[in-house]
Protein 1
Amino acid sequence: MITLLDYGAGNVRSVTNAIERLGETVKVALNGEDILAAEKLVFPGVGAFGNMMQILRERKFTDPLKTYLQSNRPFFGICLGMQALFEESEEAFGIQGLGLFKGKVVRFTTDLAVPHIGWNGINIQQPATIFNGLTGEEKFYFVHSYHISPEEDDVRLTTTDYGYEFVSAVQRGNIIGTQYHPEKSGMAGLRLLKNFIENSKAVEIPVSVTAPTRLAKRIIACLDVRANDRGDLVVTKGDQYDVREEGEVRNLGKPVELARRYYEEGADEITFLNITGFRDFPLEDMPMIEVLKQTSKNVFVPLTIGGGIRNYRDKNGKDYSALEVADAYFRSGADKISIGSDAVTIVEEYLRAGKCDGSSAIEEISKVYGSQAVVISIDPRRVYVDSPGSADQQVIPTTIPGPNGESYCWYECTIRGGREGRPVDAITLAQVCEKLGAGEILLNCIDRDGTNSGFDIELINAVKSAVTIPVIASSGAGSADHFLDVFSQTEAESALAAGIFHRREVPIDAVKDFLVDKVEIRPNREN
Ligand code: 1PR
């Protein structure tokens, strides 16, 4: 039996699912006695260091945890669960960690996008049974803005490169911590967990330090989900956001089945968008929560969910915060939430008031779950203008002339699934959202959506160069070449597609086969 430390703000469902998939049972530690009684303890952490330590203290978990760790019984700390083992973190000055390891947690200082999100490699620094059965060449899923900086060299288990080399896992005796998420790292991650569960004593994988590791460009499958006219929840797909064909909502499959197929074909991430979320309330729309729960049982890569994440008042006058909606999604298996329409409203308010007060959904959710868990989904549409000065918005030159030969444009943000245009432009929206604490931009493009005509490279370059957080290029993929275009002509960290995957026009594994040796990717299929 594995004891799982759930302090309330992490996605423990994925870890539980992964452990159960490996045939082991999970008991959640509800109090200090449960921690002290554990035989093997897993501590998954997602969120923010200060919030985590505060909850651990409030629940009186810290002393039992220290006692457990000192007894050298098997412990696996994941991400924040590893960072907690250190003395302190730059993420929360003045708040003490558990202090088992000397050193602190520091913010990335690199020109690359922060958070460091995606699949990166490891260089193994000391022999460890945890890597039995692996080659050391695998990539694992990372998502963090802070990394550990241990003072003692002998605890370094693996290192990873992102702008510079940092320690990505530690080990001392039976205590192991990884910055990467084994529960989100496909078969390689499951193997790590299996070795931990079985307390594997077989051959130890030797030290393998090859070349600097490289972050892979991610290929993301997106599933737009809504109820069709008969009330069945289906994956649909729009043509410039129009999801109806001959009056009927297009039905391209069942969400849970499709997500599993994409995982097996090698998707690096799966995104679900509840496309009627702007009008429905997710906590009443339980099918989406169920979709997440079911998907996370079989899909061991990151899951993002969007649609309807905002403050809400139900018909009885009861108020729910966007944070509560996000809580429900995280607890159902989501790793990131994506905010669309509400982000536009938040940014408009910010621009009007000239400041933020910490109460927006972006600020509240990123404070609890960390900025890496907050994606902003932008649904922009081109507006052509004659000259840079003819609009108040951020205007860019374009090589694709407008209907009247215009050679400039700006990107109008929309809400309610593209139904309503707003005066704020996509570049400004991305910049303000980053300031408020968003960790990633999902950059759609209504003009390209469903057209198979390729990504809007000009839009992606304009937004990517205006922010320091990762950008997901979306809309328009029609061939494997389009992925090469977006990765060679922009700095986008990942590319998302829907239609070509749903229709099997170009499956994910075909995209990856095409990109091998041209772009750094995670090549493995998951079956
Ligand atoms: O506004 O917070 O409730 O979130 C609603 C979410 O639903 C937003 O993220 C918005 O992008 C999405 N959405 C709303 N209506 C539609 C629609 O299509 N009618 N889907 C919609 C947007 C966009 C993409 C799509 C790519 C790739 N889908 O993510 O998957 O364009 O498509 P392609 O490869 O086939 O070209 P809120």
Protein 2
Amino acid sequence: MRYILMTLLLFMTCLSVSFAGNRNGDVEARIDSLMSRMTLEEKVGQLNQLDGRRNLPYIEQLLRTGGIGSIMNITDPEEVDRLQKIAVEESPNGIPVIFSRDVVHGFRTMLPIPLGMAATFNEELVYDGARMAASEAYEHGIRWAFAPMIDVSRDARWGRIAESFGEDVLLNSRMGAAVVRGYQTDSPGAPHTVMACAKHFVGYGAVEGGRDYNTTNITERQLREVYLPPFKAVADAGCASVMTAFNDIDGLPASANGFVLDSILRKEWGYDGVTVSDYGAIGELMKHGVARDREEAARLALLAGTDMDMATKIYTGHLPDLIREEIVPESALDSAVRRVLRLKFRAGLFDRPYVGPDLNGGVASSENMALAERVASESVVMLKNDGNVLPLGRAVRKVLVTGPLADAPHDQLGTWTMDSDTSLTVTPLDALISGYADDVEILYEPGLLYSRDKDTSRFGALRSKASEADVIIAFLGEEAILTGEAHSLADISLKGMQSALVELLSSAGKPLVTVIMAGRPVTAVGEISKSDAVLYSFHPGTMGGPALADIIFGKTNPSGKLPVSVPVHAGQSPLYYSQKSTGRPAAKIRSLDDIPRNAYQSVLGHSSYYLDVGVKPLYPFGYGLSYTEFDISEPEPDDTLLSRSDTLRFSVTLTNSGHADGAEVVQVYVRDVHASLTRPVRELKDFRKVFLKKGESRRLQFSLPVSSFSMYDINMKEVVEPGEFIVYVGNSSTSGHSFSINVR
Ligand code: GLC
């Protein structure tokens, strides 16, 4: 009996130690032990990440010598295991490599682009989507995913706005954290989890003119109040790594910027995750003009705090000598190596370096497709529905489906879709035919074959079909290639002959429903004005078709809200709701047409707006219609005189007063009315998506720490200054009840 107890005790101890193997104590000891056995070259090798799509023989050689720490873009599980076996069994210390990939909005089953996921305002759903993406990636040997992208994006000209969660700080923070939790779960390294990598640190969304890779001009205060908070949120959520941005920040490129990488990320936040450069970014320090050569680039980047070198071989080429010549202290190298090894321990690679055996084969499963459809459904924003054209009723017998995005299985997926399978895409045309052709006759004439198409030879056929139809549904927007990295646009209007197509359709005198699938908010004032109803679906992913079809026919009630302001004109960019008042906020706004001839220069007044396009967006952040109506009662605050350490508590009653079940997003904005520095006219401080059956009411309680109303004062100190704050509670950034509180 005693023997059995001893064995049991020993087993339990081993179990706890191995479980604790992912806990700091044991991991740090194991890292110490490993590092004590590693040569200088092997340590530098851990900081070397290469693209597996090229120079594979060279990579295999590095695997044998321990000269590489991570391989990107290999997604064949057998190839992953073949390469991993070399690292584990043939290298001097058997350190596994970590295989990485851009898994930005799905792997095989594509979710809506992140801008669309943001439009759901539903963190739980985004978490579920991230779980699915992680699982599909894990099935292919990926253990490190380069997402979430949480660059606050306020310029629709920037192609990468597609990858972000939009213009708002809180929305990027909460959606980014949801993705991190979905990728890593509470047990990072467990089967079907991947390590997250928040990107791009930091301020990439502020590229001048919306031109990708351009310089930025960001004050430290903007950094701290706008661009850094989402990264702090994901760091607090346990995000395993951060990727440095291509751009410079106040003249210093992010990959060599010790202020953000060391002073803030490490010293202020105590972040212990890995920092990895963006693709080639360390080499680009020479293009930026801050490094004379590769050796200087290596020194600047490592000393600033960039742990891993993506795809340039600069670290392996120069760090050993820089350290032997004592130009770079070995301690800097050791800190970076320790973080990389810790990432691998947290990823479970030392315990389970190979793919499987815990695979579940759940790639592109029916459950995953159903989830992708749910996310797509909640990502659709109804901007307009004049005369309640939608949902289409039983009187509709013939529907014309048209437009370049009606049956575009590739473009519907959007950007970052390398592992997708377009044969799985269900387009709107597919879904309308398969789901509704028994009830209505579906006519189809694309009119244009792709978004840039200038060939109007199909317009004759289109005109004829339009005359037969009861209702016309036009699917417009952008080809995927016009969005994403390196794909900025100066003119964000609809390309090709899409505008002419809408002109033709509107002349048919039939109700016109326009659906826009895009990777950004496009300018479409004319097209929208000619449409009776407008659905904005960004690029909705694999199951965008059924999601849209069910909304059009009323099986689903749209609940999306705009994560970005929709501009009237690109010239308004950057455009966002949380703007400053200025000393001359837009007052009496005239349009070009009502300016008198030979007018004296002062007749138009002197306030901040554009004479030709005004100052407001066509549709504001947070806006979105529903097939039902919701009422939000006057807020009832518990107290309106609070100290900085208090929590503002108030309640509202949300009522579904309409005729359909649906979901509303109750949004809470705050304005600091008078402060020592200029403050935004509104800032989103909380939001909650609530589903109510028709006629149902629900009391909602909100609790906002007054500390969340903070700013950075002239001394760069985070403070909440005393005085009046206005709290707005509504269903967009321009609506709602308000009440004042006073902070003493
Ligand atoms: C790209 C992107 C980055 C991506 C990386 C690896 O250039 O900027 O978002 O994760 O390279 O593909």
